[in-house]
Amino acid sequence: LLGASVLACVYSAAQALRGFQRMRAAAGYGGRSGGGLADFAGDQVVAYLLITASAAALPITLRVRSAVLNVFTDAMTAAISLGFIAFAALALSAMLSGFTLSSSAAAQPY
Known about the structure:
By secondary structure, the chain is mainly α. Helix content is about 90%, strand content about 0%. The relative contact order is 0.15.
């Protein structure tokens, strides 16, 4: 779960930086930005990693939590919950990236 969370954090930071660079470039010359397929694929991969890591950690955490209730199990439960929330955010981002990708593909002539 930790590795998937770190990867999602790095990916999200890179996407934010890339979005900032796109806004600066669009303000300069009104140009077109590429990379829609990379955005869509990246969102899909990172969302899949988050949901699988959270789903894999959940049963073990629940089993340990039923036997021992301490700060560690509370922290793991919170991390799993935040992993599911991050998955929902990346799923929304993937839908928006897919819409942008299909809109740009439909606007181009054959």
